[in-house]
Structures are given as C-alpha cells and as structure tokens.
Amino acid sequence: MFTEAEGTRKAIGDVDVFYHEGLYHLFHLVLPNHDFIAHAVSTDAINWRRVNNALFIGDPGSWDDLMLWTMAVSPDPHVKGRWRMFYTGLSRREQGNIQRIGLAVSDDLYHWQKTPVDWTDHRGPNDPELVLKARELALEQPTSCRHAKIDPESNFPLEADPAYYESSLDEGREWVSFRDPYYYREGGRGWLIMAARMKEGPVVRRGCVGQMEETSPGKFTPQPALHHPGLYDDVEVPNLLKIEGEYYLIGSLREDAKIRYWHTDRIGSPWRSYHDNVLLAQGNYAGRICQDEHGWLMWNFFTLGGPDRTTHNMMPPPKRLVRTEGGLLRANTFEGLDRWVGERVETRCVRPLRQDASTDEHCSVDGNELDLSCEAGFQAFVFDGVMSSARLRAKIDLEGLGKCGLVFRVDPETHDGYYLSLDLLKGVAQLRAWRTGPPGSGEHMMQFQALQGGNWHVETPGEAEMQLIAFGNYLELSVDGRVILTLADGTFEEGCFGVYLESAKMRLHDVELRRMREPKQSTEHLVTG
C-alpha cells in the first residue's frame, strides 16, 4: 500500500502505474496543491520507495503554471527506448477553469522534459521597464522539468475542439473539461482519449470520453467522442484495453464514486453496458490500468476523507483484471498478496463469541467442515486466537432464509469489531464497524458506521465461495473469485475472526484461516524506512 505521512497536509491523488523490466513505476498527484507529479518504484506492488519527483508546475506565465492533474505514461511508438507522459495542466490565466493536455518525454522514466508548446505569456504588457527586464532575466535560466520551450509549430498543449466538445467558459458548466489523458495504440495507429463533455444536452449529463488521433508523431487531430453514456457529468480517468478480441472502456464516476466499464467488439460500434458494470466499489476512484507479465492490473486510490477526496487517501494493492466466459470484466485479488500469507490457524477450535449460549445453538467440526446453527437471535462463532492481519477462506452453504456473515478483529469481551453481512440469496455484502463509545456518552455509546457495500450475481442461492483479507488497514472481500469489497479502514487493529448466524444454519467447507505478515511499510518509511 502507499500513502503520504500523517501531518504533511499532503494526500495521494490520481495514480498511473507503468511496469518495466521487473519494476512498477508509480506516478501520482499530490493533493490538495497539485504542484508536482510524484514518482515511486516497487518490485512487489505493495512496498514503495519514493524517488525524485517527475514533473512540476510550469514557471509563471506557462500554460501549466497553476496545477498538474492526471497523467498517463506509455512507450513512445516513434522513438525506441523513450517514454511519453501525457498530463493535464491548468493555467492561472483562467484561474484553472480551462483544462489542457501537455506532453513530457523521458529516456529512462526518471528524468522528464516537457515538450515545446505553442503558448504566449499575456501577462503585464504594461509592466514597468525594470519588471520587464527582470522577467527577461528569469527566462535565461537553463530549461528544467518545470518549463517547456515555446514553439509556434507545436501541437501542444492540446485543447478541447469546439466542433465536438465544450471548449469555452460560456458553455455548459462554464468550466472546460479536457483532462485525464490515456494513450491507446493498435495496428500502427494511436489515439489519445480523455475526459471531455458534449456540446449539447442536459448540462450535468454531457460527460463523455473524447478522443484525438495521432496522425503523425506528436500531431493530434480531434475526433468525435468515443463514448457518451448520456447520464454522467464527467467520465473521469478513462482507460481503453482489449482482451480476447473485446474492447473495454473503463471510467470513474463522481456520481457514486465507483469505477465502471463498457464494452464493444469493434471500435466504432456502440459501447454496451452489462447488468453489473461496477469494477470496484464505492470509495475507490481514478482507476488506471497497466500490463505486467501476468496480464492487466487495475490501480486506484481509496479515500477516507469524505466527498472531496483530498485527504486521508491511500493506494491499495492492485486488482487483477480478468474476462469471464460470458465476456464480463472482473477484478480479482492480486496474486502478489500470497507472498504475505503465513502459518495456518487451527479452524477446528471454534467457540461461540457470546458465552451465554442457549440450547438452540449448535457447533460441530468434522475435519475442515463446520456445521453451525443458531435457531433464534444472533451468535458469532470465532476461531481461537487474536489476530491482526489474516486471510480467511471457506465455502458457505446456508440452509433456510436466515442471516449470516463474517466477523473479524472482534474484541472477545466488548464484541466491538468489524461485522460483514452476507446476503447469499440476493448477493449483497455490507461491511460495518460496530463499537462502544466512551463511558457516560449515553445514546452515543453505540457507534455504528457503514463502511462499504457491494453486490454480486448469485448462481446458486445460499452458496458462495468467499475470501476475506485483512492486511494492515486494507480490507478485501471476494466472492466466487471476484473482489466485491475493497477499502481501507483503521478502526480496529486486532481481534477474533469467525462467522455469525442469525436464525440460520450453515455448513462451512474447506475452511482455511492463515495469518498474514504485517505490511512492512508504514507512513514513516518515507523518512526512516
């Protein structure tokens, strides 16, 4: 996992990851200032080490002198051994209300140089002579990663074309969306896609995926929108990939803070949506993809900071993207987490969490199968031992129409901890943190927080193969191999793991509980690790 140190007033924002020669390169925004694009590297996609920052905002008067927004790194198709970073820039000229796309290049992924731009500094034509002289002297400094040379022949920065998209401040939201670039190449042709907005329609339904084709090296020609769902204000951080002959378009939506996708068998045909097109649950945002030797990975940042998504953010472990037999795109648990799995916990040692168990409760163990029942009321059955990080796997067979779920990091005395309800008939998972407040706080002693919910398609009602991972602050639930919940929360650090029943009977098959090594990397690694 990756995050910023507490107290820095910085938070990780949109991310982009590029894999090259065994090393994952993470480029990310730093919120809330957006002054630079940071760079970190990792060999395992879990532990990260910051290296020199990649790009900075431009010098005063530049097209990107206010903020830098989402970027995307890809190989330069025209120069072998070189990489390109397309990135979003904002200018003080319009107080950041117009977004443009720029380009930087690198021969090693570490040292980046902004490409020339066609831009005129309109500041202070009537400045005093001494001020004009000072500005001239400042321009004489060697060109750095902060500054792009001026070239009237340059195609950059790219702007929204008025023929297809909102492009001026007197249209739509009076705020021009043209950001979050992603470069896609196939068959010797290349396209740049981005978050843009149509010129017509209800104002908050114009969000689309814009596109430009690279007709010659570094020259981009505007094209009509690649996809306009007709429903969203913006389709942020778009990605395009092809798996087994099918194209998938991935985007993040502010409306519900989820990552969704669409699909088509041919570019130019309509983009279709499945009955369930959610890739990652609420709170996961700005999804980006990269390809390593095992396939496609989905990355994102997760926020605990509320609707503004500018505080208390972290980048969780990636998810492995797979295509089902029916063509749906699914996010699976990152196989790299297996390296953190340790010793097995004896699951034949199970006991009721509530010690005043009544006669209508039953628990029997046969090998790695457990038969549990609670005819009335609520009861949790937990395994021996207090654990922090662990992985629990089991096949669940629920009898009847009662309720069931998982509990983890539950205090054996107060019963405070995480409660994860599983509706195995409708396919709904809901995670809550349930704890006791300070003594004397009256009705506020009961503290109940809904953390995240998700759903899946139930093939056989009452049955599911599930996996729960509690890895430091990272929490993940998979059902039948698909990641349903993925989030970060630090409310509870350790406790008992188990299952619960409410007026139900359950059989658990192939139960496996294993401790996990704690993530070595804390926020302090930035200065001491």
Structure description:
The chain is mainly β. It is 2% helix and 51% strand. It is built from one helix and 35 strands. Strands 23, 24, 25, 26, 27, 28, 29, 30, 31, 32, 33, 34 and 35 form a 13-stranded antiparallel sheet that branches. Strands 1, 18, 19, 20, 21 and 22 form a six-stranded antiparallel sheet that branches. A four-stranded antiparallel sheet has the order 2-3-4-5, with no helix packed on it. The two termini are 14 Å apart. Residues 523-529 have low confidence and may be disordered.
Give the helices and strands, then pairings.
Elements: E1 2-3, E2 11-20, E3 23-31, E4 36-42, E5 49-56, E6 67-75, E7 83-90, E8 99-106, E9 113-114, H1 129-139, E10 179-186, E11 189-197, E12 207-216, E13 219-227, E14 236-243, E15 246-253, E16 258-264, E17 278-280, E18 284-292, E19 295-303, E20 313-315, E21 319-323, E22 329-333, E23 341-345, E24 350-352, E25 361-366, E26 369-383, E27 390-399, E28 403-410, E29 417-423, E30 428-436, E31 446-455, E32 463-471, E33 474-479, E34 482-488, E35 496-516
Antiparallel strand pairs: 1-20, 2-3, 3-4, 4-5, 6-7, 7-8, 8-9, 10-11, 11-12, 12-13, 14-15, 15-16, 16-17, 18-19, 19-20, 19-21, 21-22, 23-35, 24-26, 25-26, 26-35, 27-32, 27-35, 28-29, 28-35, 29-30, 30-31, 32-33, 33-34
**Looking at the structure, what is the overall shape?**
elongated
**Total of DSSP H or I helical runs spanning 4+ residues:** 1
Low-confidence stretches: 523-529
Give the tally of β-strands. 35
Radius of gyration: 26 Å
Distance between the termini: 14 Å
Helix content: under 10%
User: Strand percentage, roughly?
Assistant: over 45%
How many strands, which pairing sense, and closed or not: the largest β-sheet? 13 strands, antiparallel
Structural class: mainly beta
Mean pLDDT: 91
